[in-house]
Amino acid sequence: MKRRIALKQMALYAGGMLVIPSCDFSEERILAAYEKLQITDAHYKTLSKVVETILPGGEIRGGRELNIQDFVLVMANDCLSEENQLRYTSGLKQFDPYVQKNYRSRFEKMQQSKAEEVFQEIVKSKKADPENQGGMNQKLAELSYFLETSKRYTLQGYLNSEYFMTEIMPYKMIPGGFQGEIPIKPSEKINING
Q1: Is the distance from CB of 91 to CB of 76 less than 8 angstroms?
Q2: What count of other Cβ atoms lies within 10 Å of the Cβ of residue 172?
Q3: Helix (H, G, I), strand (E, B) or coil at 30
Q4: Of 1, 41, 50, 106, which sits most exposed with the smallest number of CB within 10 A?
Q5: Per-10-residue mean pLDDT for the chain, 194 residues long?
Q6: Residues 6 or more apart from 189 whose CB is under 8 A from it?
Q7: What is the DSSP string of 2-31?
Q8: pTM to 2 decimal places
Q9: Backbone phi, then psi, for 40, in 5-degree steps?
């Protein structure tokens, strides 16, 4: 009898040990794919809204629909130097608190027009004082760096996406032959790469 009870208790103990490591008691989980950037789910959502602000959806698919935010994070994780990665993540982490403090709303909850206005104001504040002579603080410089880098990678990801290359500007691998002079129709899709 005692052996049966001991086996039950060992099975319960082993099952409990398997369950405990899977429990996550931390508030924010670091996304494993971007280990150098230390991005959480909240930061990922903020970046998704920034990408949507840069390339909103409509008649054509927008940046968020194409998951361009993943491309932006991969490029920042793999291609930026360590110093620039720190600047980028610092700007990303400070972005939503800065917007909440100065605009009294979370960036994710803003309407498209207001989000575009906030985006432009932060980028213009950097351009108004490019050499930091007027006392532009470090926080605003990092925010501006984050937005400009995100914009650059968003456009790069969108212009190289399968959707853009097949539906917006279809690529012709081998054109139909040389035609020296062709009138271009305004409604015709023209591939700038070929």
Answers
A1: no
A2: 9
A3: strand
A4: 1
A5: 76 66 55 74 92 91 92 91 93 93 90 91 72 63 93 94 86 66 76 59
A6: 168, 169, 170
A7: HHHHHHHHHHHHHHHHHHGGG---SSSPBP
A8: 0.72
A9: -100, 175
